[in-house]
Predict the structure.
Amino acid sequence: MNRIIPLVILVLFSTESYSAPNHSNLESDIGRPGDSDKVSRIIKLTQVDNMFLPAEIEVNEGETIQFVVKNGGNHKHEMLMGSMAELKKIVKMRRMYPDKEHSETQLLQLEPGEQKELIWQFTRAGIIDFACPLPGHFKKMRGKIFVEKK
């Protein structure tokens, strides 16, 4: 019986502390996946092995952006949008569980030389952070999206 309790606690801890973010809160804070028919602009980003180019982006509230992200580095990289507090939590979890699969709607995973697209609608004014949450990448590979009121 004593062996079951720690296992149950471990399972509850790991599923609760590393479950997917609450998408209803996340979407209200940073926007939501956008409709390709409503894209107003295309913004190109390049990842190199220690930064995003550009690292600062300006968009308008309500705008739907098609991000075209290219990994120009020699290592696997990701682009994840969120609040800085949420990104820091995800980075910490990535260090603890490096082999866990990730499927956040605001995440792109790219191998060296690969290019992918993300369509996102920015529903509220404010500042949204983005970063590569992979271990060892987060401190330098960061950027900000400034969402201006209409």
Notes: The CA atoms of residues 22 and 135 lie 23 Å apart. Helices lie at 4-17, 23-30, 84-96. Residues 4-17 form the longest helix (14 residues).
